[in-house]
Give the backbone structure.
Amino acid sequence: MTVLTWVVDRQRLSSIAHSRHPIAAPVSGVNVNRLLRRAGREPTARILDLGCGDAAWAMQALAHYPDGHADGVDLNSHVLERAAVAAEGRGLADRLTLHERDARSYVPDGDYDLVLCVGATHIFDGFAGTLRQAGRHVNADGILLVGEAFWQVPPTPAALAALDVKPGDYTDLAGLVDAAEHDGWTPVYAHVSDAEEWNDYEWSWVGSLTGWGLDNPGHPEAAEVLAVARAHREGWLRGYRDVLGFATLVLRRATNSAG
Ligand SMILES: C[S@@+](CC[C@H](N)C(=O)[O-])C[C@H]1O[C@@H](n2cnc3c(N)ncnc32)[C@H](O)[C@@H]1O
């Protein structure tokens, strides 16, 4: 979230940064499971994860829906390679199909019982675009699960600078619900990340990069990796900490197929 001119390969940097926290959002494993339970799909659920990253959400969803199948879509070949290895290790490779492509132009061969887009709404230009573009893949009685940032308090100049965003790029929590209802969705559950989840996420991100830089002192990119970690930490601690929130909403269509 910090503005820097990076020379280091961004995909590799992101891989290192997320190595200790495969969910690339401030949501704990316990709460991932709670959200998936609340999604309440059948064991045979068809699942789509847009901007899946390491496919940690998709794989955990498959643990909840033991006869289900998931499609994960991401542009980043590095994360998809890691996802494939993890799926193999968890015995899920035959139930997870990974697609290296732009989620905006993904054309599935049917609709889904559960569509996930967590920490990846930028793909669709924000929350409203995600409701429309990810939502079109959800079947009539299906669930759209979206993880999105919001302003916990009115944004400060330091937070805006650290995140390189404008005040209007996010709403407050009530505004997220309003936007969902405006587009015909209604939350049947939501999780708001707490301070401990933010701490774990941010310190894992910063700590993984810092550890890598210290472990590889002769590497040509080590100094830059350390600088990225430091700048990110500063941006969080002095900028958006306790200002930016993160909510994961479990959404259903406001009018279901039964009318
Ligand atoms: C912050 S990560 C979130 C990953 C995952 N949803 C999670 O919560 O762990 C955002 C992901 O979106 C992917 N991404 C960005 N633009 C994309 C696009 N146009 N199509 C597909 N994936 C994209 C990135 O490669 C990255 O893996």
Q: What stands out?
A: Residues 195-215 form the longest helix (21 residues). The chain has a mean pLDDT of 93.
